[in-house]
Description:
alpha/beta; Rossmann fold; 7-stranded parallel beta sheet; 5-stranded parallel beta sheet; elongated
Amino acid sequence: xxxxxxxxxxxxxxxxxxxxxxxxxxxxxxLERQGYTVRRLPSMPDEDKLIREMQGAVAYLHGGxxxxxxxxxxxxxxxxxxxxxxxxxxxxxxxxxAADRLDIAVTSTPGAATDAVAAFTVAxxxxxxxxxxxxLGNHFPGWQGPKELPRxxxxxxxxxxxxxxxxTRIAExxxxxxxxxxxxxxxxxKEALERELKISFLPLHELAEHSDILVVMVxxxxxxxxxxxxxxxxRMRPGTVLVNTARPAVVDPMALYxxxxxxxxxxxxxxxxxxxxxxxxxxxLAEFGQQLLVTGHIASHTRxxxxxxxxxxxxxxxxxxxxxxxxxxxxxxxxxxxxYPEEKIRHAER
Length: 350
């Protein structure tokens, strides 16, 4: 195996692979000015194409929906030193354990999409609560009685599963903007936030039982996959609105189907949906299409968020290639603690 390029100045002609759409290519110019050749793929590669395209690349800016599998990383290990993932949900797209084993840094862009995803989620809560899509184009609502009238948000109890950065921001908007009663479930309690926002902690099953609208905001991992299962859904009140702007796999599709059959889930909101090979998902769409609000993983794809993520990923690539590590690494490969060099600190303080 050939030795990989050492950390230090860029060598002209070294390649950086970029995937994904919506990327402002001018934000990649700092890499080109350092002598790197930036090669962008216009469409999502399958594993074989990704392996071919990564040959000779020293860095890989992962902005698409493709999977950087262990096999793909192994084929690129002679030269590849960093995978810079756009976003924070890297677990389902990059085999970080394999990257650690191969001494390939994996970075993410924490904080860059917090406001966009939180705002989108609150917008979908409002959208679902008022059932806006079913009234679009109608000049008269056609209500038959008072029970059909929508409720104000302050009259609803909203539960949030996952009080990370985005979940916290959602809670802030709901509490401070609409005075909504909010409860949450998280692996660890956040008592300071409970006091600050006047929100309450409940175990997951009790939260499902307590909520008119249940918001799912946890990353997809082995531990969270199918976290919202039959045990959770059977505890829901009839007509509960389920809002999942995290990953689809966090909600068990068969349990969701059964919940809709039983009327426990009145409306389900997804940003990104299950794959075409999921039979349960096909049944959901066929039988409950009018009770599903599905968008194509767009919550974090505002212009400002994409630009922030790309800038952050470019800095991470520069840091790993130049100094050997970066503050936003997510793996556990052995590395020196990252510290900005003095000249960068002085520049940032200006």
